[in-house]
Amino acid sequence: MSRTANTPQIPALGELDRSAGALGRQLAQKLRDAIKSAALKPGESLPSTRALASSLGIARGTVVEAFEQLIAEGFLESSPGVGTYVAHSLAGPTRTTRRRSAGLTESPQPLPESAQRFHSVALQFEPLPQVPFAVSVPVGAAAPSPVWRQLGNRLRAHGTGAPAGYGDPQGELSLRQAIAEYVRRSRSVRCEPEQVIVTTGTQQGLFLSCLVLLGTKDFAWVENPAYSGITAILDAVGEPGRMVRVPVDEEGLDVEAGIRLRADARVAFVTPSHQYPLGMPMSMARRTALLAWARAQAAWIVEDDYDSQLRYSGHPFPSMQGLDPERVIYLGTFSKVLFPSLRLGYAIVPPQLVKAFCGARILLDRHPPSADQYVLGAFISEGHLERHIRRVRSVYTQCRSNLFDIVREVLPGDLAWLQASDQGMHSVLWLASHIDDVAVCTQAMREGVAVRPVSPMYHEGMGPPGILLGLSAFTKEQMGEAAQKLARIISEFSKDVKRRTGTKKSRKQ
Length: 509
Ligand SMILES: Cc1ncc(COP(=O)(O)O)c(C=O)c1O
Description:
This protein has 509 residues and is of the alpha/beta class. It has helices at 23-36, 49-56, 60-73, 93-101, 113-124, 146-157, 173-187, 202-213, 228-236, 255-262, 284-297, 354-365, 370-381, 384-410, 437-446, 476-501, and strands at 76-79, 83-86, 196-199, 220-224, 243-249, 252-253, 267-270, 300-304, 328-333, 345-348, 416-418, 426-431, 452-453, 466-470.
């Protein structure tokens, strides 16, 4: 081990907020952050659980709980006689493997800080297995129709999608025309094909927006809670501290709070049609307030419209972009309504930003693969996409109602309950406040249930515990089986906490 850390040697740990409770989760998050920011380096020893507990003035069991959690996540390792230390593998798998096979025992040289940040992004975003409750798994009745395959075969073999030279960095014109037509009709977006930039999905749209719109010292508003695809970009790239987490309530982003926190932010990243992950739409009053702020500050709004076509009662909410096309960058994706491995989406940007977005994307990947753009363009313009959306909406309506029934029947109501929502491809299952959602999800994944915890989607991982249940066209039996496992895991964790703390009642939030 390189050196022994003790509490004063980990200044990044700082103080725990006792009034917020969940001290184990707080400590785990602080340790995670210290590792991500390289304040704790691969191979570095941690103090004993007893020493750390006494220096922080908390129960030893709380430290044990945090250590166990981080061992399960791969951040820490422990071995008899050595104690607990930051996982060597975080220094990079190739280097570690080479050293192990060469019989070298000294600590590997730490990776540069930026490499460590991206390394932890890779751990965080490992794809979920295609089992309940993973989101967007296009199986069974939700699979694209045979037309998709037929069109693909025709266009890729002999048609416009056959191999050719470099394409347009903005995307193929036929697809941009089809997208512009489709979003004008279905999402009240105001645009011309010249404003459409075909992306490899919303993740790229978010990255391009950060690259193009944010200077190194500019601040960005991000919803609290938010999609980790945006928070991870702002954590991993550029100056630390430029992300301002703005609370959301039942009307969506609290614009007044954003103004109080950082009125001079340059960009606001929002999910107005279906707040991610909580699910409510942003009220018209808040949309108007957000646009007024953006106009006054010459700031931009990035609208992530990831799944609003899937509303199960009434019509989808219209886009924010339609209210002010000069201030809003609109991001759409085919990951939810078609399938995520297609890796195609779109950014619709004000005319003055088109060249800047094209320049940034040339440096990333030059342009999206051409062949599937032609297939998708034909699929949309021949009316197949809208037929497909109508079909999957009815499939998912049924799956959703199955999911809600199963949760009500199988999960213990005092420990787990669903957040109401009437659209999209996931729902939040809230857990009683004494249950650690990260630990539950880690165990569920080990047992073959694909779930993600909600608390890490909040600032510093300090949100209430919950589980994201994704919607895909899994059968009722598959969902039922997964829910049984989840129910058992949640009950066991609850009992374990009560045994350790002597609590009798479960605490709903
Ligand atoms: C809120 C939100 N934004 C963006 C994305 C990324 O989508 P894409 O697959 O288009 O990159 C997702 C994917 O789950 C999402 O949930």
